[in-house]
Fold:
Amino acid sequence: MLDGVMLLWFVLTAAALLFVAIDIRSTPESPVLKWGFVLLTAYTGVIGAFLYVLGCREPLPGLHERYIAARWRQTLGSTMHCVAGDGVGILAGAVLSSVFGLAGLVEVVVEYILGFAFGWTIFQALFMRDMAGGSYLRALRSTFIAELLSMNLLMAGMVPTVMALKSRIPFAADPASPRFWFVMSMGLLVGFIFAYPMNWWLVAHRHHAVAHNLKHGMMTVRPAGAAAGAHAGMEAAPHAAMSMGSGEPPWPSIPVMTLLSFLALAAGVAIAFLLRAM
Structure:
């Protein structure tokens, strides 16, 4: 039964990935977010493709700016960006842990470090450095908090899911088995769900937090001269979507949200070990 479900999952994932990889080329989105949706679809199959169509794909020519301005779509882009980048490091950590026989808390730490390192230094700071004036060091500083908070919630959902499934599905810890990749996909999908509320907070407070630069959402990038009448440019959609205009400090405050994110991570790890022991 499980093998049949996994076969269907991988077939649908391949079809969804092919669709997104081809279709997103004509979507006026930032290149890094295009790659993000491709990676998310590789992780989450038809769900990722559905999120791309619902949240990013331009419904009619010239409408992308207004379409993505909704806060939930901005949050979708932010969460997807997080999971796509962190997921590469997390999967690398899971494979390395299997190869070197690491398990339990050590495996969690390896996955966290590699996931955070790749998501922060590559997918956030390197790919988005132009938004920080072209300075990589400034991009590292400005994206650290957002990456940390989002990563903590991603792991809080992913770790118990993966541990629970690995303890109940034979060969799920072996990267040579399709069961391993199925389990990791389920873990990243649950992690995406857990990270979404944190990204909502990060995106909602970006307008006030230009100094903090907490999180960007979806963007619109059009070729020069192709954006007449469509509010063109990379920054058009984010600014339109982020004009909350409150000017008030983020609430809850950044230290409070940081503490809550670590509490959520600790709770997720504790639940993971309880589920594995059952």
Summary: The chain has one domain: 2-277.
